[in-house]
Amino acid sequence: MSGTAGTGRPCSPAERRALLALARRAIAARVNGAPPPAPDDPDLPPVEAGAFVTIERGGELRGCIGSLETDRPVGEVVARVAAAAATEDPRFPPVRAAELGLIDVEISVLGPLEPVEPVEASRVVVGRHGLVVERGLRRGLLLPQVAVEWQWDAETFLAQTCMKAGLPRDAWRTGARVFRFVAEVFGECDAPPDSG
């Protein structure tokens, strides 16, 4: 799946390849106990943006961690969250060195959060928007591709994001704050081949 990030411009094919290569190097370094790679590839996008890195093995989720911060270079964010996705996602054991050749990496470069006001399902476009729901100290986030993969409608997507935050399914109707964002999503499986 691909789209335009909220940074104002989509990543070029070379920028996508550079981010995916950086994520892969960061994962390998963390798994092998090596120093993290420097995000110094000249093809990295010159933008500041949040990002999530998703790791899959055999089509099954193996780890996913990200950051909403938008004040750091996206290459720096991708390197950090890729390493974290491999070893710090509490839902999974850390990725092992023997798995490095078996995993696929997907990156979601996030656009800025936009408040959904008033909070209505009609203001959420499945396949375009990701969601954040907040109430008090609880926060849940789901990426745009999750609703597509599970074939949810907008109301179900809102309810599932509430549940991700540890809130009741209907919290979006009862005062929780809801934000939407767009993301540019690309992975190793759909990256254009290197022409060099």
Describe this structure in words.
With 196 residues, the protein is an alpha+beta fold. The protein has 2 domains: 13-110, Glycoprotein, Type 4 Pilin (2-Layer Sandwich); 114-183, Hypothetical protein ph0010, domain 2 (Dna Ligase, domain 1), CATH 3.30.1490.150. The protein is built from 4 helices and 7 strands, in the order αββαββββααβ. Strands 1, 2, 3, 4, 5, 6 and 7 form a 7-stranded antiparallel sheet that branches. Helix 1 crosses helix 2. The longest helix has 20 residues, at 13-32. The radius of gyration is 17 Å and the shape is globular. The relative contact order is 0.20.
In summary, what is this structure?
Helices cover about 25% and strands about 25% of the residues. It contains four helices and seven strands; from the N terminus they run H-E-E-H-E-E-E-E-H-H-E. The longest helix is centred in the N-terminal third of the chain and has 20 residues, at about 15-30.
Radius of gyration, whole Å: 17 Å
* Structural class assignment: alpha+beta
What is the average per-residue confidence, as pLDDT, rounded to a whole number? 92
Span from first to last CA?
24 Å
**CATH homologous superfamily annotation of the largest domain:** Hypothetical protein ph0010, domain 1
CATH class of the largest domain: Alpha Beta
Strand content: 15-25%
**Largest sheet: number of strands, sense, barrel closure:** 7 strands, antiparallel
